[in-house]
């Protein structure tokens, strides 16, 4: 029975005994899903809580700190120092250009007013595809949530990926 369940729904979450401000599942309660985003939708109750995605137009925000103009200036200055960049900095320099990084997708109404930095961790890279639909952005952010929370789960929750043989 469990093998059939895992072949059809390889992603799972279960509640643990740890106490947390955010309680998604009770200890021993399980949720199985065919995709990462379906699991996160079910466990975190995105629709009931009212978590939404929204495009933030950084380029148009005159009050942003740092400003978009600062980013453009820093990006151009970094070109002259490119031989001193670490690998991830060089990758970001190529991906996040003034032409591509005009804004990013945000999550709004996270439980307990959690920030996106706390929700995704410090290594999260903004989803910057400005022509994405809200549905596409939601799926990308739900997958990012699963990936981060699987390796650094919040207290009281454990996520498993059957496609990586985490059930064995």
Describe the 3D structure.
This protein is of the alpha+beta class and 168 residues long. The chain has one domain (2-57, 103-164). Helix content is 39%, strand content 14%. It has helices at 2-8, 36-44, 46-49, 68-80, 87-95, 116-120, 134-151; strands spanning 11-15, 30-33, 52-56, 104-108, 157-161. The strands form two sheets. A three-stranded antiparallel sheet has the order 2-1-5, with helices on both faces. Helix 2 (36-44) crosses helix 7 (134-151). The radius of gyration is 19 Å and the shape is elongated.
List keywords for this structure.
168 residues; alpha+beta; two-stranded antiparallel ribbon; 39% helix; elongated
Largest sheet: 3 strands, antiparallel
Distance between the termini: 15 Å
Order of helices and strands: HEEHHEHHEHHE
Indicate the radius of gyration in whole angstroms: 19 Å
Residues in helices, as a percent range: 25-40%
Strand neighbour order, sheet with most strands:
2-1-5
Strand content: 5-15%
The total of helices stands at: 7
Structural class: alpha+beta
Number of domains: 1
Topology:
Blueprint lengths: L1 H7 L2 E5 L14 E4 L2 H9 L1 H4 L2 E5 L11 H13 L6 H9 L8 E5 L7 H5 L13 H18 L5 E5 L7
Antiparallel strand pairs: 1-2, 1-5, 3-4
